[in-house]
């Protein structure tokens, strides 16, 4: 059997530049979305190192390799992948997305870099020093008297504004609502925040919920938030408002019995006290 290297190369080149090759990116992303990260990484790496791949495919692969590394807490690898993306493909869509945020990412990642990129000798000497050092090599911030709720809302709002309609914005809306609903810190000098401190924030809560519901009407947390809002009104003896939100829980369920619909019905039967 004879082999024709030139012909094989031509066929391979036509494959990697064809729509079928682009589907490899889609396949790899699908693997990632199904938490098959090891398989996804193999495909992304193959695309990244294939010289016949289009630049847009290689830059896309590098972006996702950085994303996976970040989620696996291999922060130095993630930052290196993204820096290479910006350097090698500065005009790509992903480079434009990442470039302006590299400095911010660097600040976060710098606190979590490991010694894996260092030589064995250097790493051993660093560990020798660490043996004698009492420092845990992490930054701490005394947040006493700082506006915790305002700071949290700032970052959630930034995600919502800069990544509209994405899973990141969906998560930011949910976390923003949790922050607005409030929390309490334990201890002798514990403090309350959000709605647990100031019921005037109920307007911000309901407005944020309305935006969340409009943008992501299928989010499974909506019923839980509806109940939290009803509960907040109930705690302030505002029966009419509480009743409105409880009935809304039952209404949107459209006859389906769930934990929240049944709890809402029970609360409606024991509303006033």
Strand ordering within the main sheet: 1-2
Terminal residue distance: 90 Å
CATH class category label of the largest domain: Mainly Alpha
As for the CATH topology of the largest domain, it is: Serine Threonine Protein Phosphatase 5, Tetratricopeptide repeat
Categorize the overall geometry. globular
SSE topology string: HHHHHHHHHHEEHHHH
Specify the helix fraction band: 55-70%
By DSSP, the count of extended strands is 2
Q: How many structurally independent domains? A: 2
Percent of sequence in beta strands: under 5%
Low-confidence blocks of residues: 1-21
Structural class: mainly alpha
Radius of gyration: 26 Å
CATH architecture of the largest domain: Alpha Horseshoe
> How is the biggest beta sheet arranged?
2 strands, antiparallel
The overall pLDDT average reads: 85
Keywords: Signal
InterPro entries: TPR-like_helical_dom_sf, TPR_rpt
Signal peptide: 1-22
Organism: Lujinxingia vulgaris
Word description of this protein:
It is a single chain. By secondary structure, this protein is mainly α. It has two domains: 9-118, Serine Threonine Protein Phosphatase 5, Tetratricopeptide repeat (Alpha Horseshoe), CATH 1.25.40; 148-269, Serine Threonine Protein Phosphatase 5, Tetratricopeptide repeat (Alpha Horseshoe), CATH 1.25.40. The chain contains 14 helices and two strands. The protein has helices at residues 5-16, 19-33, 37-48, 55-71, 75-88, 93-99, 102-110, 120-132, 148-162, 167-181, 202-215, 222-235, 239-253, 259-269, and strands at residues 183-184, 192-193. A two-stranded antiparallel ribbon has the order 1-2. A hairpin with a 7-residue loop joins strand 1 and strand 2 (192-193). Helix 2 (19-33) runs antiparallel to helix 3 (37-48) and helix 13 (239-253) packs antiparallel against helix 14 (259-269). The relative contact order is 0.04. Residues 1-21 have low confidence and may be disordered. Residues 1-22 form the signal peptide. It holds the Pfam family TPR_6. This is Tetratricopeptide repeat protein. It comes from Lujinxingia vulgaris. Keywords: Signal.
